[in-house]
Amino acid sequence: MNNLYDVIIIGSGPAGLSAALYAARARMKTLILERTKVGGQIVTTDEVANYPGSVEDATGPSLIARMEKQVESFGAERKKDNIKEVDFSGKIKLLRGESEEYQAKAVIIATGASPRHIGCPGENKLIGKGVSYCATCDADFFQDLEVFVVGGGDSAVEEAIYLTKFARKVTIVHRRDELRAAKSIQEKAFKNEKIHFMWNTVVDEIKGEGILESAVFKNTQTGETHEYFADEEDGTFGIFVFTGYLPINNLFKEKIQLNEGGYIITNDKMETNIEGVFAAGDIREKPLRQVVTATADGAIAAVQAEKYIENNF
């Protein structure tokens, strides 16, 4: 069985790469399955200042690049395939992809989470045409334009600060009257002359024909609405959404125990309710979703997978 691996890791963000590093280093036959790009959410982050030991001016992409080199040096195999179905019922786990079928003694799920949308009319139609969920990816398109950042947590405020390098004005739109971001991040934002705030406000509708042209904002306390139109000379503006994430769990519904939010439930050994199946990173139920916790999850999952295989095969 050429496609039988000791460990298959679904996902190649920090959790998946960390798991691959530990699994391959333990001389297990290891495969990382990537659906699209490597790196997960961290590749959209301009600054990685809170990862222990990170070099000065470290970025998400640079951190992932170093992780990739480490994984490759230990011999982990990598393939691009979109897994369509999983069968965890037997001792050997089966994964069916668009390209081929895979078998594993143990599986580590590290599929992560994806950005939560506003959910207002016009949003989906204008994604990539003024609406974005990644400042690092799209900030350059809004050089000297005005942008709105929706959200009030760490990511929203950090990305708003980053956007001031490009946009002439950045307005944070938050449904409450105070930010949820860490105080140190808030202080930076309040000191930045380019950053403005719309409190107790949500985006009610996004409009435009082929490009973002206007947005309707609604006051959460009074219910009053007002429409913002792009400056005539600019022709457009930007809306960046940072309102949280949704677990990428479609493969695992009714296969693995999930919590009410759709995240995979694990114990401190990253074990799910299915023997031989582990979860790591943003896909699992946890109090803190950061690179440092994702890499820790991946390491633990790989070590526990090794122990599971030793005891069961």
TrEMBL record:
Q: How is the cofactor bound?
A: Binds 1 FAD per subunit.
Q: Which cofactor does it need?
A: FAD
User: What keyword terms does UniProt attach to this protein?
Assistant: Disulfide bond, FAD, Flavoprotein, NADP, Oxidoreductase, Redox-active center
Q: Which residues form the FAD/NAD(P)-binding domain?
A: 5-298
Matching entries from InterPro entries are given as:
FAD/NAD-bd_sf, FAD/NAD-binding_dom, Ferredoxin-NADP_redctase_2, Pyr_nucl-diS_OxRdtase_2_AS, Thioredox_Rdtase
Q: What's the EC number here?
A: 1.8.1.9
GO annotation terms (biological process): removal of superoxide radicals
Per the record, GO CC terms? cytoplasm
Single GO MF descriptor? thioredoxin-disulfide reductase (NADPH) activity
Q: Does the keyword section mention Transcription? A: no
Which reactions are catalysed by this chain? Answer: [thioredoxin]-dithiol + NADP(+) = [thioredoxin]-disulfide + NADPH + H(+)
Family per similarity comment = Belongs to the class-II pyridine nucleotide-disulfide oxidoreductase family.
**Subunit organization:** Homodimer.
Q: Which PANTHER family does the entry mention?
A: THIOREDOXIN REDUCTASE 1-RELATED-RELATED
This protein is called what? Answer: Thioredoxin reductase
Q: Say which species the protein is native to.
A: Clostridium aciditolerans
